[in-house]
Amino acid sequence: MKRIYYLLDDINEAHLISDTLHENGIEDWQFHIMAKDDTEIHQHHLHKANVFQKSDLVHSGERGALIGLAAGFYLAIFVSPWSALPISFLLYALFASTVVGMIAGTVWGNFHENYKIFHFHNDIENGKLLVMLDAKKDQHSLVKNLMKHEFPRIRFSGEHEWFINPFETKGIIPIR
Asked: What residue ranges in the chain does DSSP mark as E strands?
């Protein structure tokens, strides 16, 4: 699955896009809009971006879990040979450090913008709408062609795989 981005100036265009996509088999969960102010999105009964799409919760949580896991392995490998602690305690420490790392990463990510969309920050702050379309493999070309032919004035702004890679840092580079 790929996420495709479009930048819009007008909420009415977003509403037309939503209707056109629904008529062509794109479901509600595949279409989200991000704006500086969500009021217009609610008034037009469109789907606003959720917390997972706006913030870096998942990405930072995965990173935190990996850091915690590494810390737990460090404890298990370097502390256990000189310790009289039972192996079950070390496994518990490995698990606990992973969970603590994941929680710390999630808290960190809650306060930071999603790494895949931070390039659009200034556009959104300047009043543009970011449309995020999640297209399945068999829908990808349909969505791109539909957007290109039905809405030629709307600017394609980038795409990426839907998968969240904990090691990726740059996100997508928008097409200007």
From this structure: 2-8, 31-34, 129-135, 155-161
Q: What is the pLDDT of residues 131-172, one digit of tens each?
A: 999 998 899 889 999 999 999 888 889 888 877 777 776 666
Q: Which CATH number does the domain housing residue 26 bear?
A: 3.30.70
The answer to whether residue 70 is domain-embedded is yes
Question: What is the per-residue DSSP string for 13-48?
Answer: HHHHHHHHHHHTT--GGGEEEE-S--HHHHHTTPPB
Q: Domain of residue 141: give its range.
A: 2-55+114-161
On the 0-12 / 13-18 / 19+ scale of CB atoms within 10 A, 71 is middle
Residues of the chain with pLDDT under 50: none
Furthest C-alpha separation in the chain: 70
